[in-house]
Amino acid sequence: MAKIRYTHPDGSETVVDVPEPNSVMRGAKLNNVPGIEAQCGGSAQCGTCHVYIDEANTLPLPPMDEVEDDVLYGTASPRRETSRLSCQLPVSDAIDGLVVHLPEVQS
Ligand code: FES
């Protein structure tokens, strides 16, 4: 279980407890958090689960693989240093308190 904090472009935020096994994307969908479309359902193909990891993050996240890296070049909102696909971020106790910022648009 991890508490994930989704920050919206208007500055508001939604905080939810996400059980394992789930991804940060799935946690948003299960809790009706707006701003993550996830059109491909989590198979790292659509780029519509794009998030920006908070710049102050020190929690351990899995490294980005080649597929995720490629998809992040095609996102609707600009790719940044902190960009990740939320479907590729598994939830665990280790990322309890993770803060992700949602982009202006996903598609
Ligand atoms: S849900 Fe499609 S890339 Fe993550």
TrEMBL record:
<keyword id="KW-0001">2Fe-2S</keyword>
<feature type="domain" description="2Fe-2S ferredoxin-type">
    <location>
        <begin position="2"/>
        <end position="106"/>
    </location>
</feature>
<comment type="similarity">
    <text>Belongs to the adrenodoxin/putidaredoxin family.</text>
</comment>
<dbReference type="GO" id="GO:0051537">
    <property type="term" value="F:2 iron, 2 sulfur cluster binding"/>
</dbReference>
<dbReference type="GO" id="GO:0046872">
    <property type="term" value="F:metal ion binding"/>
</dbReference>
<protein>
    <submittedName>
        <fullName>(2Fe-2S)-binding protein</fullName>
    </submittedName>
</protein>
<dbReference type="GO" id="GO:0009055">
    <property type="term" value="F:electron transfer activity"/>
</dbReference>
<keyword id="KW-0479">Metal-binding</keyword>
<dbReference type="InterPro" id="IPR001055">
    <property type="entry name" value="Adrenodoxin-like"/>
</dbReference>
<dbReference type="GO" id="GO:0005829">
    <property type="term" value="C:cytosol"/>
</dbReference>
<dbReference type="InterPro" id="IPR001041">
    <property type="entry name" value="2Fe-2S_ferredoxin-type"/>
</dbReference>
<dbReference type="InterPro" id="IPR036010">
    <property type="entry name" value="2Fe-2S_ferredoxin-like_sf"/>
</dbReference>
<keyword id="KW-0411">Iron-sulfur</keyword>
<dbReference type="Pfam" id="PF00111">
    <property type="entry name" value="Fer2"/>
</dbReference>
<dbReference type="InterPro" id="IPR012675">
    <property type="entry name" value="Beta-grasp_dom_sf"/>
</dbReference>
<keyword id="KW-0408">Iron</keyword>
<dbReference type="GO" id="GO:0140647">
    <property type="term" value="P:P450-containing electron transport chain"/>
</dbReference>
